[in-house]
Design a protein that fits this description.
Elements lengths: L1 H21 L7 H19 L3 H6 L3 H11 L3 H15 L3 E8 L5 E4 L5 E13 L5 E12 L2 E7 L2 H10 L14
Antiparallel strand pairs: 1-3, 2-3, 3-4, 4-5
Helix pairs in contact: 4-5, 4-6
Length: 179
């Protein structure tokens, strides 16, 4: 009957809406999604195993170029310096857990065609006998020259630096960091 068809259509529409709400909004294709997930896994492994060179190598090249230009140092010197600083800072710390939530990421493509994703990130760090510290931040994934690069966004200042290196992000808002 017509009534049964209408009920079925409402159910299908409701189910579709629920599935859309429950699924992460992905603005790029499946191949990009697969490569992004591989980059995220490699990054998390690098952090957990204290491979800070790999963590720094994952930074967006435009950010390294901007810092290099501002400091009047070569990109290699910037990378080596940041790697050494990370090693020193993390010398007495242990990353207990590092989770980038793909299910709740916000993704898109800039007007210039650059794919990106903001991933809510939770890090738990132990330092000596102190209680474990938990930080809620964002990880920004950006596709540059067909490679996904990652950058932790803990402060608005980090995103300002990123935007200076990638001006096509001027209209991309920084999502709220959930506590």
């Amino acid at each position: 009957t017509r009534f049964e068809k209408e009920i079925k259509m409402r159910f299908i529409k409701s189910l579709s809406a629920a599935l859309l709400i429950a699924s992460p909004a992905v603005a790029f294709d499946g191949d990009d999604q697969t490569r992004l997930e591989q980059a995220l896994d490699a990054y998390a492994t690098s952090l957990k195993t204290a491979d800070y060179k790999a963590v720094v190598d994952a930074l967006p090249p435009g950010v390294i170029a901007l810092l290099s230009e501002q400091a009047k140092l070569s990109p290699e010197t910037i990378r080596a310096s940041v790697t050494a600083q990370m090693a020193t800072i993390m010398q007495s710390a242990t990353i207990e857990s590092f989770d980038m939530n793909v299910e709740t990421m916000t993704s898109g493509t800039t007007g210039a065609g650059t794919n990106y994703a903001f991933l809510p990130t939770t890090t738990r760090i132990a330092v000596g006998d102190a209680p474990i510290q938990q930080a809620s931040t964002l990880t920004l994934a950006v596709e540059d020259d067909a490679t996904w690069h990652l950058m932790r966004i803990e402060l608005d200042q980090h995103y300002f630096i990123f935007r200076a290196a990638y001006p096509d992000f001027a209209d991309v808002p920084l999502p709220e960091i959930a506590e």
